[in-house]
TrEMBL record:
Sequence ranges assigned to domain EAL in this UniProt record: 31-284
Signal peptide coordinates: none
Taxonomy, superkingdom: Bacteria
Name of the protein in its database record: cyclic-guanylate-specific phosphodiesterase
Organism of derivation: Aeromonas lusitana
Amino acid sequence: AASNAMREAKRRGRNGYLFYSHRMAEQMRERMVLEQGLLKAMEQQQFRVLYQPMADLANNRLSGLEALLRWQHPSEGMISPARFIPVAEQCGLIEQIGEWVMRTACQQGQRWLAQGLTVPRLSVNVSVREMQSPDYVERVTAILAETGFPAERLEIEVTESIIQSVDQSLRLFTRLKALGVQIAIDDFGTGFSSLSLLKSLPIDRIKIDRTFVQALPDDKHSRELCRTIVHLADSLGMAVTAEGIETQSQRQFLQSLRCEEGQGYLFSHPLSKSHLATKLTPHCSALC
Ligand code: C2E
Ligand code: MG
Ligand code: MG
Ligand code: MG
């Protein structure tokens, strides 16, 4: 891809070449800052986990939590996981970082349960590369044993690109299901997984990508897509969550489709563990 950009830039002439090489140098600098920083971030404890509530759309009550990683970089400030996770995948640090997130979330979940608080479900994002590492299932098994967090309340979120290799994902999912954990397909609708493949895998939940949710209720294409995904999930016996709900009209439209669960700023931003505790009391009122 880099050499294609180079060739294209050369074709465009001298200024184009300078422009592109400058941009490529910028990208390389950023990558180096991130890669070197990631090595230090683990040992210097610069990572944190926030938790975003999910809501039952029928009554707006808390139905689950998603663990979301944050990196507080000493000089660059807060860096989004969308920027550094791909770098961690490329330089092979994702296994270590992912294991830390899973352990931190399960420890916290177990602490809340021990305090008598409600943690209906705890979702942890796992990158495809991390899930494909040979001892992934063993690591999850060890963390569940070590923390005591109930496997039935743990959900693993992975994007639909895992489905490209059906045999492999069937073997993996089957082993994870045997532990008792649930499996969700994240950002659904952005990949190209065929519906028949989805049917052949033990998937508990589909999460509708927020780009479709955010175009609701005006965009006809997004309305049809959401409707189709909700019906698909229903006919396959899977649960469905809509991500990125920001407005009441988005919430109402999804509820009218009988989408059972929602997540987004309308209900809550991702919160630190201390800010979240009050929302986990057994008789806590609706999120919005
Ligand atoms: P995701 O798993 O799809 O997570 C949802 C993202 O949407 C989060 O972004 C969340 O903060 C954001 N979000 C939630 N509600 C709204 C809303 O109403 N409006 C808008 N505009 N955004 C909303 P975040 O935390 O920046 O994470 C981005 C992505 O990074 C995640 O997308 C996930 O793919 C990845 N990620 C986060 N934590 C981890 C992790 O521990 N491991 C791995 N492998 N990936 C992670
Ligand atoms: Mg997710
Ligand atoms: Mg998502
Ligand atoms: Mg996403």
